[in-house]
């Protein structure tokens, strides 16, 4: 299978779904499943920060996909760090976050690459 511009909608929706799943994961993780402090943690607010690129991703803005690939690396670093440092449920949640970030990063990069005007030639 060759990668072309016809796959753009698929990559866009996988990226958006990954972002929404990361927001949901963060909220569940920091408020109920394995918060850093009993009763929840203010770290749940980082889920709101993840919503910043959502509008551009939903509208297929190439520039948003480009900067999002740098932005999401913060969540990758956090996931790796917490997978190393935490035990039990927290470690598994961190590994799920790492997987979601890798999927999101990959599909966002593919979208940004193949949505370039020079690649949008009709075949």
Question: Care to give the gist of this entry?
Answer:
The protein is an all-alpha fold and 123 residues long.
Written account of the structure:
The chain is mainly α and 123 residues long. It has one domain. The chain has helices at 8-33, 46-50, 54-58, 62-71, 73-85, 89-114. Helix 5 runs antiparallel to helix 6. The model has no long low-confidence stretch (mean pLDDT 92).
Summarize the helices and strands and which ones pair or pack.
Blueprint: H1 8-33, H2 46-50, H3 54-58, H4 62-71, H5 73-85, H6 89-114
Keywords: Membrane, Transmembrane, Transmembrane helix
Transmembrane segments: 12-33, 39-58, 65-85, 91-112
InterPro entries: DUF2069_membrane (IPR018643)
- Counting helices, strands and paired strands, the structural category is mainly alpha
| Cα separation of the termini | 16 Å
Mean pLDDT: 92
Number of domains: 1
* H/E topology pattern: HHHHHH
Instruction: Summarize the biggest pleated sheet.
Output: none
Return Rg in Å. 16 Å
Helix percentage range: 55-70%
Distinct helical segment count: 6
Keywords: Membrane, Transmembrane, Transmembrane helix
Transmembrane segments: 12-33, 39-58, 65-85, 91-112
Pfam families: DUF2069 (PF09842)
Protein name: DUF2069 domain-containing protein
């Amino acid at each position: 299978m060759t990668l072309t511009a016809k796959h753009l909608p698929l990559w866009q929706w996988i990226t958006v779904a990954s972002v929404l799943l990361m927001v949901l994961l963060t909220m569940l993780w920091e408020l109920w499943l394995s918060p850093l402090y009993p009763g929840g943690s203010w770290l749940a607010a980082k889920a709101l920060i993840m919503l910043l690129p959502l509008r551009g991703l939903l509208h297929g803005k190439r520039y948003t996909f480009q900067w999002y690939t740098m932005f999401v690396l913060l969540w990758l670093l956090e996931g790796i760090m917490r997978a190393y440092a935490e035990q039990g449920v927290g470690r598994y949640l961190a590994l799920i976050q790492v997987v979601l970030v890798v999927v999101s990063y990959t599909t966002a990069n593919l979208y940004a690459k193949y949505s370039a005007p020079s690649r949008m030639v009709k075949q």
